[in-house]
Write a structure and sequence with these properties.
Layout lengths: L1 H19 L13 H7 L7 E8 L2 E13 L2 E4 L4 E5 L2 E3 L4 E4 L7 E6 L2 E16 L2 E15 L3 E10 L3 E11 L4 E15 L2 E2 L1
Antiparallel strand pairs: 1-2, 1-12, 2-3, 3-4, 4-5, 5-6, 7-8, 8-9, 9-10, 10-11, 11-12, 12-13
């Protein structure tokens, strides 16, 4: 009986001490994903990407070259601005790729009428374009609702060490249940840090 009372007292003491101990939890650490972001969108003056584009049946080529910097922003020859920060890759209006890769969808509000919903839908995709076949691509889906029961879907494919290798857009007629191909952009060749591919 004395042993039982002793064990009971020890258990009560341990329980009391463990409940009363002031455990200060550290605030959640916001990871810095800038290094990962730079892998999927390598930004450096002189880096260049040539794309084959097909817009509504018209085809052509587009050259994009990083020509200058403005603080943390990298500027291209077509007036675009990109940067990589601790959350991902972004342009002036939105994050186009966010980390961690397997995350909840994120919303970009461009103006009071335009709201984009982005979701990473694949992290180990295979994609073939004129520049070659790539594995391990990250696929990001963007949904933009359009008045009149329509929605614009786009898919961006990011490859580590290369950048964006493919973009496809589709127009969905929600009422009719139809999905129509709109545009495609495919990487033809690229130069990253003076190494042409």
């Amino acid at each position: 009986m004395k042993k039982m009372m002793f064990l009971l007292m020890v258990l009560i003491t341990v329980l009391f001490v463990s409940c009363s101990t002031d455990k200060k939890e550290k605030p959640p650490h916001e990871s810095d994903y800038k290094t990962s972001a730079m892998k999927y969108m390598p930004l450096s003056i002189g880096n260049e990407w040539k794309y084959k584009v097909n817009y509504f049946g018209s085809s052509g080529e587009v050259d994009i070259k990083i020509t200058a910097t403005d603080g943390e922003w990298f500027l291209d020859n077509r007036g675009g601005k990109l940067k990589c920060d601790k959350r991902g890759v972004r342009d002036e209006n939105r994050y186009i790729l966010m980390f961690p890769l397997q995350r909840e969808p994120w919303v970009s509000i461009i103006d009071n009428k335009t709201r984009e919903l982005r979701t990473t839908v694949g992290v180990d995709e295979k994609v073939s374009v004129p520049a070659g076949s790539f594995e391990g691509a990250v696929k990001v889906h963007t949904l933009l609702e359009i008045p009149g029961g329509k929605a614009l879907h786009s898919y961006h494919y990011f490859v580590s060490g290369v950048g964006i290798v493919k973009i496809q857009t589709f127009l969905e007629d929600v009422k009719e249940g139809k999905m129509l191909s709109q545009t495609s952009t495919e990487l033809v060749e690229y130069t990253i840090n003076n190494g042409k591919n």
